Amino acid sequence: MPDRDSHRIELRVDRFVRERLQPASVVATASVALAAWEAPDEPVPFEEVPHDAFTPFRVGTSWGKPWGTTWFEVSGTVPVDWDAGAEDIELKMDLGFSLTQPGFQAEGLVWSPEGVILKALEPFNDYVRLGVRPGDPFRVYVEAASNPDIGAGFIDFRPSGLGRKSAASSDALYALRQVELLHRDPEVGELIADVWTLRGLAKELPEGSPRRAAILTALDEMVDVVDPTDVSGTASTGRAALAGALASPAAATAHTVYAVGHAHIDSAWLWPVRETIRKCARTFSNVLDLMEQDPDFTFACSSAQQFAWIRDGYPKLFERVRARVLEGRFIPVGGMWVESDTNMPGGEALVRQFIEGHRFFFDEFGLECREVWLPDSFGHSGALPQIARAAGADSFLTQKLSWNEVNQFPHHTFLWEGIDGTRIFTHFPPVDTYSAVLSGGELAHAERNFRDKGHANTSLVPFGFGDGGGGPTREMIAAARRTRSLEGSPRVLLSTPSAFFDDAKRELAVPAVWVGELYLEFHRGTYTSQARTKRGNRRSEHLLHEAELWAATATVRTGADYPYEQLEAAWRLVLLQQFHDILPGSSIGWVHDQAVQNYERIADALEGIITTAIAVLTGEDGSSEELRLDGAELRLNGAPVPVDGVPAFGFAPMPDHTPVPIIETDTGYTIDNGVLRVVLDSAGLVTSLLDVAADREVVPPGQRLGILQLFQDTPTTWDAWDIDVSYRASGSDLIDTDSVSIVTLADGTSALRTIRTVGSSTVIAQTISLGAGSNAVDYETRIDWRERQRMLKLAFPVDVHADAAASEIQFGHIVRPTHTNTSWDLARFETPAHRWVHVGEEGFGVGVANDSTYGHDITRHARSGGGTYSVVRQTLLRAPLFPDPEADQGEHTLRTAIVVGDIGEAMRQGYRLNIPVREVVGVASDRTAPLARSDRENVVVETVKLAEDRTGDVVIRLYEARGARSTATIRFGFPFATVRETDLFEREVAASVLTAGAREVTVDMRPFQLMTLRVTRG
Ligand SMILES: [Zn+2]
User: Fold this and answer.
1) How far is the CA of 648 from the centre of ligand 1 (A)?
2) Active-site option among 88, 136, 294, 376
3) Are strands 750-758 and 855-862 parallel, antiparallel or unpaired?
4) How far is the CA of 578 from the centre of ligand 1 (A)?
5) How far is CA 232 from the centre of its chain?
6) Helix crossing, 531-558 with 564-576: angle to 10°?
7) Cα-to-centroid distance, 300 and ligand 1 (Å)
8) Which of these, 17, 30, 64, 277, is most buried using a 10 Å CB contact count?
């Protein structure tokens, strides 16, 4: 077919659809009565809507202040003369939708007068079936949310004041465009779907292809045979003209797509958590409605938290969801509490994502998820395969790496191997979206893009509008049906994640292996943005560790009550806030303000648990006759490694060493504790750091340690998410000081305090100190941050020649090159780490630990005198303007320690900064002895708690921290009957009773192995 013919047909068909078929899909319309009531502030439940307060409302009128809720009452009678069945009568309501970006604008939820949710109204899903017949009256209520579109298409990332309700204006955002009763013509609807699929397929076929010509010819004939003045009467004839083209089967080698209904609903992002709850109700109600219409439709839904919101807020809707779950059609996936970030959550927290998610799904539905489902999280930690497998998952799905800036990931289906060697079957949908609509373009892209062809030929396509777009639509299902076997198209099966993974594993018997983290070459600013949220997460994780440890110790020693409910509530809130737009700092100000308030409440609750438990242990609660002595000051260490002379999980008397003095000299200052000798210049920067015993200088020739650096930080797109490498072209060292002085800190330590003013407003006060006997120099940086679009780093040039740097991740560390040999290394210019990073040579190394910083960059530089030195930098703060123009403004306190020693020393400093030694008053006794202790410092007891099933068993979680195969003895501070190895859900793994001595067991650990032990008390 000549090109001009194809083009003519395409134009003809498109116009015919637009001007003839679409209008004809509605046989008749009828007007309705309309009234409205606007909630004064936050949403109110259906039961509390004042039904006498509605006033008449007219189509065309503006409604809806930002974040407001307007209730519409819609009523009327179906015209008696309609020749229609109930299935063809619908209410259509256009709230003033824009047809771009469903999910980022107004939405409605339709309720019956009895308070039953019927369905939602969304831009591409704006109807509700009322179940009424001609002559029937009806009345419904529409809970319409006037959510602002903060993203505005994600084109220019303009700062918006709408992200905090207090800052938003009260001007109406929308105008009600249409509310009508429709009599649909289903046959015309089917014809439109036929055309949409064929037209989309033809567009993807090569110009010279006979199949393309045949489809276009059929479409041309369809226009010929459908009478534009009687579309309803001739739609069947039009469909007959297309039947041949639709009946031609798929090629034997066609790619097979497992189409899985889905809705990616971000648990908070450009809206607050309370709106996500309503978004879930709307989308779930659409899904239930679609399931009624189509018996083959299934829907995969992640995040136990979202199910829990519906259970608690919409119990009747939840019972309908539960019924569909039990039928196997509404399918919980992922097994996690939320789709969390995986770069930043600590090891135990990532485990708890699975424990809390699993408990919910198991308790509510009796099922376990076999796959991890994180389509959108911003890169994936090398610890995840082991954690996922320990949680019973055998498959992993993500899509995000298709966003890589530089390198194309070489596989779509492969085995992913984590730092400990655990492998998990992994799939990246080659469709490159988790919100497909099953268009010809998407299907063709999935087939063309699939990188494992030749070895495999199947992929998964998640389809459905996310984020309040309302999930899958009947049009998508119609497209799936037409592409089940269609020449020129991939085969589309309406299917489930487990069916896909089972078939994909059978098909690809020997998958390729990818080792290490799945680093996202994008969104590198998410390790730093919204520092208060990061700090709150870090503090909460460590307070939870301490609360469980001391509460478990108190229960075992005295029978004190264990605060199960309070701990579960705190964990669940911490886990929610690890969602992949909250902890990464990419949400609006409202979300982050609320997150920080939640972290304050969590801290109060956990400090209460810790104080109570410690009082029980030290006798300060007055419960013990024996301990009714005069309490002395004690230090206690909640860390699993010895810190400052206090044993792991133990108590010790107060030390009696005198603070290390700071001596002022002609050129600056010196601090010397016999272990380290620190020389600082008059600007308070370290010019020499000597490891006294090794007689080894840490500062490279001509360099200074601990320099604050300020950079321009204006990423091209996605401001809060991204750091562009171009930041390195700017930047200045903050050397000038307002003052340098020797001060005494609250704990009696001498410190050097420097105060610097940046620009005209940002004040940075930094103290540097060295504890008695310590091998680490402590920095405390207090910043009153008033910068915009700038980034602050703290730089430590160290005289270490290292090809690679180690960064702590969950239950171990990952090693990344310091060079940029390959494009993969080059793209990794900003990296996440947990409590510490380390660079080392054989026998010598330097670690940099932090109390709440995640973003780092570690580079190599030519050294004067030969070789290279390393620069370790922490990324302390950013100030992006989108989506929160006030991000990170105000006061921050960040702690850093630079330690001379091996990875074990870095790890110890990481624990010291994050679980500071507590000073308490009381009596050390048998009660205060540790519950569990490892005899090997690299075999770390990360967690001590009571069992989730509340039987009173003690559970400990261990990991090997250094990458060294090890045998360790775990000694318990209480008698036990058995010690069993379990999965993450504390269920015994086969034949797992460990060889036990009187109060100890021996464990053999692989490098970076994670192990859970369940101890039944004797
Ligand atoms: Zn997302």
Assistant:
1) 39
2) 376
3) unpaired
4) 12
5) 49
6) 160
7) 15
8) 64
